[in-house]
Structure formats: C-alpha cells, structure tokens
Amino acid sequence: MKKSTILIVLAFFSIYVIWGSTYLWNKIAVSEISPMLLAATRFTTAGILIMLLAKAMKKPLGISKSQLINSTIAGFLFLVYGNGVFVWALKYIDSGFGALLGSTQPLFVLLLMRLIDGKKMQGRSIIGVCLGVLGMYLLVSQKEIATSEDTVLGIMMIFSCVLSWSYGSVFVAKADLPKNFFVSTGYQMLIAGILLFTVSLILNEPWSLPSSWSFDVQLSMVLLILFGSIVAFTAFNFLLKNISAEKVSTSAYVNPVIALFLGWYFLDERLSTQSIIASVVLLTGVYFINSRKRQSKLKITTKPQKV
C-alpha cells in the first residue's frame, strides 16, 4: 500500500472515529468539569500547541487587525458559543442524541445561505431539508423527551449552537483570515480560550485542578486536546486537499453513528425505536443536502471544527 493511501485511510479514520468520539469524551469530562472551564482549558491548551507547531514549521504568525477581529468573531461563533454551550447542554441529554442534533448543521447552513445570499435550492436540497425537518420532529417529539424540561432545554440550546456554527461557516467563507489554516485555527482557539475563561468567571463556575479529576476525565481531556482539536482537524484539511469534498463530507453522517454506538456501549445510553427511525430519516436528509451539485465551497466551510 502506498504511503499516500495509508495517510488517506488514517485521515478518514480521524474524521470518522475521532470526531465521532468527541461527543463521548465531552460527556464524560462535563460530569466533573464546569462546561465553560472545560472548553476554555481544551482550546487554550490546543491553541498553544498548534501555534508552537506552526512556529516549528516556520509558518508566518503575523495577523492584521481585520484578521484578528474576524478570528475573534469566528472563535466566538464556533468555539465559545457553538462548543461551550453545546458541552453545557450535554449535561442534560445523551451524547449520541446530541450528535444527531448536531448533524443538522448542513441543513441550517443551506437555509442561511438561502436567506443571506439568496441562493436557490436545488431539487435534492429541498428533499434533504424536508427529510431533515421530519427527522428533527421525530427526534424531539418523543414523549419521554417532551415531558422532561431539562431535556427540552438541552435540545433548544444545541439547536442554537448549530445555528451559531452554521452562521460561522457562512461568515468564514467570506472573512479575511490568516491564509494558513493551522495559524488561523491557533488564533481562533487562543482567543476563544480567553473568552471562555472570562465567561466561566462571570458565571462563577467552580474551578478545579486537573489533579482532582478522575482518570476517565483526565484521559477525556487529553483526547479532546490532542486528537479532537489537533489531529482530526489536521486530517480534515489534509483530505480537503487530496480527496473530493463529496467524500470528505460523508463524516457529517458517519459521526452521529459512531457517537450513538459509543454512548450506548460506554455510557449505557438508551436508543428508542423512534430515535433510530429519526436517525435514518435525518441522516438521509443530510446525505441529500451534501450530494447536490456545485457544492464544494459549501462543503469546505460547513465543518471547520468539531465538538
């Protein structure tokens, strides 16, 4: 097997399994660490490591005023709100369920592009949106969910996170950011880390030292930093340069399957028949949206980071 083929296989494993696993790791970590503190620690550490790697690779670290402002906006949309609040919501819903709700992002991006840019929807996109809406309805209309206030709150907050990520995707597609994706990511993570620490202080979250965390939580944090924030993102960008965007985008409907399985296996999360049906309908809708023609630009910008 050629070296390039091996790298491609490993990269796909990263965006499928590692990104699908981040829901489980976050669910475990948030059981002991305050949500905003968790996200702040993760992204600040990952941001520092990324910038050190960029420096070692002799990438230019300079940034203009407009790029700094845009990096702050992107960091807020993706990581402060999009990830920080998402992790908070995982305290109230299962990790696999959260992954399914998160998979609706392509649907939200498509609707935002229709509203902001006035782009017309193609036939397959319309089918995808309809299936996506039906899938979401089947997910959230379950009796055991509708009667739990905490679960409903968690669902609503995750949908607001998906909207934040989706708007961020549309914003980044046109924003002036550092040309090197590694450097751009580093700045976004560092800025988001500072903002998240600030939010954590404002919310008066209880802070704890890593030494006080259980082994499972410590391991989850290490995996989130090294693999979820650095390895998988690097693999994603590598694939975008070497493989068609259509194939890379398949992670949008593989990640929830991985998350559902891991949540069931490790956390004993239950999966009802209606949830399974909703999953199939929802992910089929995502497939139709991702498989429409002339979509490569949207594909590249709909998934800059993962939870």
Brief rundown of the structure:
It contains 15 helices and no strands.
Note down, in words, how this protein is organized:
- By secondary structure, the protein is mainly alpha-helical.
- The chain has one domain (3-301).
- Helices cover 77% and strands 0% of the residues.
- It is built from 15 helices and no strands.
- Helix 5 (95-102) packs antiparallel against helix 13 (251-267) and helix 6 crosses helix 9 (149-174).
- The chain starts with a helix and ends in a 6-residue tail after the last helix.
How many domains, in number, for the residues?
A: 1
Note the gap between the termini: 32 Å
Helix proportion range? over 70%
Q: What's the helix-strand series?
A: HHHHHHHHHHHHHHH
Strand content of the residues, in percent? under 5%
Structural class by SSE content? mainly alpha
The unreliable regions are: 294-305
How would you describe the shape? globular
- The helix count comes to 15
| Main sheet overview | none
Q: Round the mean pLDDT to the nearest integer and report it.
A: 86
**Would you count the extended β strands for me?**
0
Q: For the CA atoms, what is the radius of gyration? A: 19 Å
